[in-house]
Amino acid sequence: xxxWAPLAAAAVLAACAQTGGLADIAPGQRPxxxxxxxxxxLVMDRVEAQxxxxxxxxxxxxxxxxxxxxxxRLVPRHCGDIRxxxxxxxxxxxxxxxxxxxxxxxxxLLRVHDEAQLAYVLGHEVGHFLRRHSxxxxxxxxSKSDALVFxxxxxxxAGIGYVGSVAQVIAIGSFFAFSRDNEREADEIGxxxxxxxxxxxxxxxxxxTAMMAEQKVLGKDEPSLFLATHPAGAERQKxxxxxxxxxxxxxxxxxxxxxxxxxxxxxLLRQELRKxxxxxxxxxxxxxxxxxxxxxxxxxxxxxxxxxxxGEGDAEAAVTLYRAALAGGDAPPETYxxxxxxxxxxxxxxxxxxxxxxxxxxxxxxxxxxxxxRYLEDL
Amino acid sequence: MRLVVxxxxxxxxxxxxxxxxxxxxxxxxxxxxxxxxxxxxxxAFDKGKFTxxxxxxxxxxxxxxxxxxDDGEPMLPAPPDDxxxxxxxxxxxxxxxxxxxxDSLAAGGLGEVVSSDLAPAPFGDREGFxxxxxxxxxxxxxxxxxxxxxxxxxxLYALVYTATRLHYFEAYRAAVEHVFASVQGG
Lengths: 379, 186
Fold this sequence. Notes:
The structure holds 2 protein chains of 2 kinds.
Chain A: H1 5-16, H2 36-52, H3 61-74, E1 83-87, E2 94-96, E3 101-105, H4 108-111, H5 115-130, H6 133-143, H7 147-158, H8 166-172, H9 180-196, H10 205-218, H11 225-229, H12 233-244, H13 254-274, H14 278-291, H15 295-309, H16 314-328, H17 334-345, H18 349-362, H19 369-378
Parallel strand pairs in A: 1-3
Antiparallel strand pairs in A: 2-3
Helix pairs in contact in A: 1-9, 2-7, 3-5, 5-9, 6-7, 9-12, 10-12, 10-14, 13-15, 14-15, 15-16, 16-17, 17-18, 18-19
Chain B: H1 6-17, E1 20-23, E2 26-30, E3 34-38, E4 42-47, E5 50-54, E6 61-69, H2 94-107, E7 111-123, E8 126-136, E9 142-152, E10 155-164, H3 168-181, E11 184-185
Antiparallel strand pairs in B: 1-4, 2-3, 3-11, 4-5, 5-6, 6-10, 7-8, 8-9, 9-10
């Protein structure tokens, strides 16, 4: 943390305090048992209990420690108040429950490129937590006689409504659709925390630029949940860029970020491919390619897009990309298998045989060894 | 939609649209090309190319029969208009057909879907493939599975057995193996 950081952090938190009629949540604070806030926490405690055992969690202790470390750096006094759950959903999203359960979707880790950007995403959610936005939302809903709808959403999310599954918790994406003012406020708090913790605040705005580009290729048929619950992307991008001018310097923390996320990246990209949203995945790969890490792995997944899409000219393009991946030196060993399958589809039998043989040599214990050996018998 | 568990959706869709019938021990048709023989009785939900057999309920164990998926079709009995997930392709190799099945399950919302022991296997008198599955439901229940499939004349035929890792998978495995080995026709 930079020398001025403690003072700046204090200033940010002081600025947060007591606006909108609600005091900021204090470190370690739990709501009084008889309060409406306690009821809200009770529901979310049940949601959190379901998330803990969900089959959709990415269970990676190193990642969990890393993310928690970032939150502790952003808000040291609230370090013990916030739990982070990484959900294996291949899209950009994060949400914060009022009890401090922060849900981060795995696809986010492919769409931020350094620790400063990740810190912004987490800091934004921390902003909602500090400012108790969900309680404000709850009271606002109640005052507008929308409480029934709110309760239905909350209890459905908790698995105690008629929906009754953690799948819906994840599908909802965000427990609460905060207002535009809440989002702006969370951005301001989050960015302040990011800067105060010594990160480069200018890294936040480019996330929105990339998100809008991804939304454009996804089209109206498949709106991003993150954008659906976080409105006005262009406005947010401009606001963040303007806010970032208040701060100067700061680190990106790219090496630390890559040390934790790179080992997970192939798994996350495989999940992206399973959605078959090839244009969006190509954009994600463009972003990762500009980082420069593991170019062979990037080329492999670009080739996989073409193999799975199977459009005109895709097979030949895939072969070129698989070969580029192998030349890069950091392609996964299954590159040979995929190359063999594409060559087989092109009836380039000798080259296919060579690729399959190299695959089995590279992965002697391959789970599909017997099937590949069967292909070799015919080649 | 994309986050709803595919198996649950399949079960719901079948339950909502199809009549439950008793499948007695004996030989039964699988679409218009194959037959299988079961040594035990099942409750069956039938919807076109998708049939679900279960004894204790599809959340605990189920044998799903896919009878001749055509080029471009997804592994869903009633895909929504905005379906963007995996689709079968007629020219798929066994490797790619297995990948299609696994990706369809994962895209449907199952967690930690892992296939293993992918190998050639007879599908009646045709050459097919089989592999094992492990995954978790969205609610965290540990599941296991076995798949037997084949691409015949550009169409995908598959028997997909899934059950809870504890108790149910083993409870019906012998019966399922009998069904797998009994495929005739093609």
